[in-house]
Design goal:
The complex is a heterodimer of chains A (about 200) and B (about 800).
Chain A (H helix, E strand, L loop, with lengths): L4 E5 L4 H17 L2 E9 H8 L4 E4 L5 E3 L2 H23 L6 E8 L1 H10 L3 E4 L10 E5 L5 H15 L2 E6 L4 H17 L5 E4 L1
Parallel strand pairs in A: 1-2, 1-6, 2-5, 7-8, 8-9
Antiparallel strand pairs in A: 3-4, 6-7
Helix pairs in contact in A: 1-3, 1-5, 2-3, 5-6
Chain B lengths: L43 H12 L7 E4 L6 H12 L8 E5 L9 E5 L4 H23 L2 H31 L2 E6 L2 E8 L2 E2 L2 H6 L2 H58 L4 H16 L14 E2 L2 E2 L15 E5 L9 E4 L4 H5 L1 E2 L2 E3 L2 E3 L5 E2 L2 H5 L3 E5 H6 L3 H11 L1 E2 L4 H4 L13 E2 L3 E6 L1 H10 L1 H6 L2 E4 L3 E3 L4 H15 L7 H15 L4 E3 L2 H17 L7 H15 L1 H11 L10 E2 L2 E10 L2 E15 L3 E4 H4 L5 H18 L7 E7 L12 H13 L3 E2 L2 E3 L2 E2 L5 E2 L4 H15 L5 E6 L10 H8 L3 E6 L2 H9 L17 H34 L1
Parallel strand pairs in B: 1-18, 1-19, 10-15, 15-18, 23-28, 25-26, 28-31, 31-32
Antiparallel strand pairs in B: 2-3, 2-9, 4-5, 5-6, 7-8, 11-14, 12-13, 16-17, 20-21, 22-27, 23-24, 24-26, 29-30
Helix pairs in contact in B: 1-2, 3-6, 4-6, 6-7, 15-16, 16-18, 17-18, 22-25, 22-26
Classes of the chains: A alpha/beta (about 200), B alpha/beta (about 800).
């Protein structure tokens, strides 16, 4: 059973770009489709809609007012930027790819993408709590597909990868985790994979 | 007053025409028997000066070896330098190294003789060891762990601060959100951010509470973010310290080892200490670029040539001058003393279209090589090379070598270049040049006398005293041996000595021009070889002399041919008044020969002026003109002391189409003039040379031998008739060193040489008429030539007086008309 799709939660920062590159290489190697997903964070739009909305710049530490229109523009610009980035990186090799924008809570949208039986790779801080990179999946995706992807990403990015199982409770989840641990034990190479 | 008329001149005997070298007084069979003569022949004054100059240790006692070319000045000076040099200390080695404080001013390091190369190798080894040791130290688990600790501490610090604020916010129902360019706080409802609509539904005091709480959190967050750069700096500082510590651990022992090796050299130790600091400051260059990666700009390698890494050039040692195998002080002869060849130069390498340089490209000059010893330079070459003379004086004055380009010296270029630390200069300079250069420099350059206090004046010849012929013979033997020539027979040596006297132009002196001697010996050896002889014979020497003359005498031969064909009018028989044979010397390409010239004089009534046609035509030089003007003085003084000199005379060198210079023909001109005035013919079988003064004394001239031989050759070609001869100044008799043919002709009574002390002796020989002295009555003797001249001049004066007597009458008439 081969992997059909790898969904990448896109981010314009340097870590996001590295994640995308690693995922694109992996997808090309596995002959899977690469789907770039940009989530327009609804929380940010809510924040911008508040009457006293402010943003503390980092690293400038200056306090700036926020409004919805400006936030919308910023999110659109970010979406454009990541789309270009995706086109550039994915266009380098023989790779089938697509781009999608979703609006909502980041975690929910990524979970929703993973619930379809796909593997979601993201460096979003909402998800990757214990490691710089997280792989989201459900028990519907067998560990035989997930573990090699996580290990390969870890090796290629030189850091730990956290595997987040969406339906984490119950018998099926336990069985999935056991199998994943077995696979990890057999896996070769220095990759550090954390099971959540 | 004129001197009284002296006794008639007698012709010289054959023995007086040449001072032969008697082979019998040379007590050897061949020159091989003679011991070497290592001293400088006939250069007592020069040798004293050289000894003094070399021995004098004070500043400014540099030497100027002066004299004409071919004396062997360089060889003699070098000989003395080679004697003095081994006794002196070998000078220290010098290196240029990188200056870590001011990189554009490379440091000069002094090392004991012979240790510079060793130091260079030590430094190369050190850099290799550092390049291996430092990266290894950075690859240890210990370093990795400590580095991770520092990085982790920084991230932890940051995350903890943000986390605390996030926690505090959460407690108050507020979320900390990441916005595209920073952070924001928004009120929460359950686990989600509250939408604006929900917020507006909240009670007003709740809204107010949230807004106030968010304002406080924002202020706290601002403070935290402001702290972050400081934490990062601290982390970076710790990391740098860690890097330094690791580098120090790896480098210190290596450098200390080297310091111990150079314990006695504080400058080297100081340099190594600076190097250690530099290594600590630039630890990263020892780790990168990694193998195979070269620094590039737009894809073009920045590496120097074969160098794999430009970074480590700064740790190199540029050995400027080293004396590993030297014994004693150096002697340097710089053949091409350009500015850069003297002071050294800073070379450049083309890189990316620009020229770059560094301390490794500083090259030593002659000063560097000669410091601590002797530097021999050709004065003319130094003076003709732009700025070389100034550079020489500056270095001697400052006693240091400052390596800079001419452009820098003149402030013509302002691009960044190197200013190497000057190197102390302790050198004895010997300039070799013509005397004229020495005198000109003394006159025109005030610094010259200060810097070149020792004049080494070489003589061209030396006296032929008892015993000197034997010394000369030893010098001949030494030169022949040094050039690996055949030994000379005794007669051949005698012939060489005679030739030396002839070259000196003086029977009592002998030339010490060693180049001429060496040439003669080489050429004699050639003829001996051609004749398959084991020894050089007198005939070989004579053949060498004749062949050399033959090679150069085309013009002499042509002139003689033209005379014999009657195209150049020179009589060697008969008589004619107002005409005499003068003798000139032609010098062409180192060969000189005598050539007869017809000199004529015409006289008429006039204003007391002797016209020099050569001068009027601008063919005569100033000394010739002076000689002619003296004639007017003589005529006026002797014949017209109390009456006007009412003669106008013109004098000319017939068929002379080039310039005439010198006063050696002035006596001939006077004889022509006296003959014209007295209307007494002159014997054309005689020729005349000698200058004359206002009293009528005949004075010495140069090249007497060539002049006599010039006339002799012409007479011999036409056939010697016994009446032919030459009048020479009596003062020149000692200079006679005539060819054997001339001596033989005189001995056979076919030719005569008359030494003449004054004009009266000369005119008597030329005219056969007594010159005549003034008697007690003040009148010249009857029938004498002088009387005829005086009467002629008196006649002219009378005629002028009679012309003058008519003049007032004309004036009177004019006056009458006025009345």
């Amino acid at each position: 059973m081969t992997l059909r799709r790898i969904v990448v939660g896109l981010d314009a920062g340097p870590r996001g770009r590295a994640t995308l590159q690693a995922a694109a290489q992996l997808a090309a190697r596995m002959q899977a489709e690469l789907v770039g997903l940009f989530v327009e964070d609804i929380d940010l739009l809510h924040l911008a809609g508040l009457p006293f909305a402010r943003e503390v710049g980092y690293p400038s530490a200056t306090l700036r007012p926020l409004d919805v229109a400006a936030m919308e523009r910023a999110l659109r610009a970010a979406a454009d930027e990541v789309q270009r980035m995706l086109a550039t990186i994915a266009g380098r090799g023989p790779l089938s790819w697509s781009f999608r924008i979703a609006r909502g809570a980041v975690l929910s949208e990524l979970r929703a993408a993973a619930a379809d039986g796909d593997i979601v790779v993201t460096c979003a801080w909402h998800v990757a709590l214990r490691a710089p990179l997280a792989v989201l999946c459900s028990t519907a995706t067998p560990p035989e597909q997930v573990v090699p992807v996580a290990a390969a990403l870890g090796r290629s990015l030189g850091g730990a990868v956290e595997v987040v199982l969406l339906d984490g409770e119950g018998e099926a989840a336990e069985a999935w985790r056991r199998r994943a641990r077995e696979l990890l034990a057999q896996a070769q190479g220095p990759a550090q994979v954390l099971l959540a | 007053m004129d001197k009284p008329n002296s006794a008639p001149a007698r012709a010289l005997a054959a023995a007086e025409l040449r001072r032969s070298c008697d082979p019998a007084q040379l007590a050897f069979a061949t020159s091989d028997e003679l011991a070497d003569f290592s001293e400088a022949l006939g250069q007592v004054r020069a040798v004293e000066a050289i000894r003094f100059g070399i021995g004098m240790p004070r500043d400014g006692y540099n030497l100027f070896a002066m004299g004409p070319e071919g004396l062997g000045r360089r060889t003699i000076v070098r000989g003395f330098l080679e004697q003095a040099a081994p006794a002196r200390e070998v000078p220290p080695d010098w290196c240029y190294v990188f200056n870590f404080d001011t990189p554009h001013k490379p440091r000069a390091l002094q090392l004991p003789a012979g240790r510079a190369l060793q130091f260079k190798q030590s430094m190369e080894r050190l850099v290799q060891d550092l390049r291996a040791g430092i990266p290894a130290a950075f690859e240890t688990d210990e370093y990795r762990r400590r580095r991770q600790e520092i990085e982790a501490a920084f991230s932890e610090h940051q995350e903890k601060a943000f986390g605390e604020i996030g926690e505090r916010a959460k407690e108050q129902g507020i979320a900390l959100l990441r916005t595209p360019s920073g952070f924001g706080f928004a009120p929460m409802r359950k686990d989600e951010v509250m939408s604006p609509q929900e917020f507006h539904k909240l009670p007003a005091d709740e809204q107010k509470r949230l807004e106030d709480a968010i304002a406080v959190l924002q202020a706290d967050l601002e403070r935290v973010i402001q702290e972050v750069p400081k934490w990062r700096r601290e982390a970076q500082h710790k990391l740098r310290e860690l890097n330094r510590e690791v580098t120090r651990n790896a480098a210190h022992s290596l450098i200390e080892e080297l310091k111990a090796e150079y314990e006695a050299l504080p400058d080297v130790r100081e340099y190594l200490a600076a190097l250690e600091q530099d290594v600590l400051d630039h630890a990263e260059v020892f780790q990168q670029p990694k193998d195979g990666e070269q620094p590039t700009l737009f894809g073009v390698s920045l590496a120097h040539g074969d160098e794999s890494d430009v970074t480590f050039r700064r740790y190199r040692v540029n050995v400027l001058i080293e004396h590993a195998d030297a014994k004693g002080a150096p002697i340097v002869y710089e053949d091409n003393p350009t500015h850069d060849n003297l002071v050294g130069r800073i070379e450049h390498i083309a890189q990316m279209g620009t020229l770059v340089t560094d301390f490794t490209l500083i090259k030593a000059g002659a000063f560097h090589r000669a410091s601590g010893g002797y530097l021999v330079l050709d004065a003319l070459k130094v003076l003709t090379q732009p700025f070389a003379w100034e550079a020489l004086k500056r270095a001697l004055r400052a006693r240091e070598i400052r390596t800079e380009s001419v452009g820098q010296m003149l402030s013509l270029i302002s691009t960044v270049s190197l200013e190497p630390e000057p190197i102390p200069l302790d050198v004895k300079v010997v300039l070799v040049g013509q005397r004229m250069i020495y005198y000109l420099l003394h006159d025109l350059d005030p610094e010259f006398g200060e810097l070149f206090k020792v004049a080494v004046d070489f003589d061209e010849d030396m006296p032929r005293e008892p015993g000197s012929d034997l010394l000369y013979a030893r010098a001949v033997a030494t030169v022949a041996r040094s050039m690996k020539l055949r030994p000379l027979e005794r007669d051949a040596v005698a012939r060489v000595i005679e030739h030396g006297a002839r070259a000196a132009g003086d029977a009592d002196r002998v030339s010490v021009r060693m180049r001429g001697l060496a040439d003669l010996l080489r050429e004699s050896d050639y003829w001996a070889q051609a004749g398959e002889r084991k020894l050089i014979s007198a005939a070989d020497v004579q053949r060498a002399i004749d062949a050399k003359e033959r090679r150069s005498d085309r013009i002499r031969q042509r002139l003689q041919e033209e005379t014999l064909r009657g195209r150049l009018l020179i009589d060697t028989s008969g008589e004619r008044s107002g005409q005499v044979n003068g003798l000139a010397v032609v010098q062409l390409g180192g060969f000189s020969f005598g050539s007869p010239h017809r000199i004529t004089a015409r006289v008429r009534l006039g204003g007391g002026k002797v016209i020099d046609i050569e001068r009027e035509a601008e063919l005569g030089g100033p000394i010739h003109s002076k000689g002619v003007l003296i004639l007017s003085g003589f005529l006026a003084g002797r014949y017209a002391a109390s009456k006007p000199l009412a003669v106008s005379a013109s004098l000319v060198f017939e068929q002379s189409y080039g310039g005439v210079e010198g006063d050696s023909a002035s006596s001939a001109e006077l004889y022509a003039l006296l003959s014209a005035l007295a209307e007494v013919p002159i014997r054309q079988s005689l020729a005349v040379t000698g200058s004359v003064n206002q009293h009528g004394d005949v004075q010495a001239i140069g090249s007497v031998n060539e002049k006599i031989e010039g006339f002799f050759d012409l007479c011999a070609a036409r056939g010697l008739n016994g009446g032919q001869g030459v009048l020479i100044p009596a003062a020149n008799v000692n200079n006679l060193m005539l060819r054997h043919e001339v001596v033989e002709a005189v001995a056979a009574g076919k030719f005569a040489i008359y030494p003449v002390e004054n004009v009266d002796q000369g005119i008597e020989i030329l005219t056969g008429m007594p010159a005549g002295a003034r008697g007690a009555d003040g009148r010249f003797a009857t029938g004498s030539l002088n009387l005829r001249v005086e009467q002629r001049l008196l006649e002219y004066a009378e005629r002028v007086r009679s012309f003058g007597a008519g003049a007032p009458a004309r004036g009177g008439r004019r006056g009458g008309l006025q009345r």
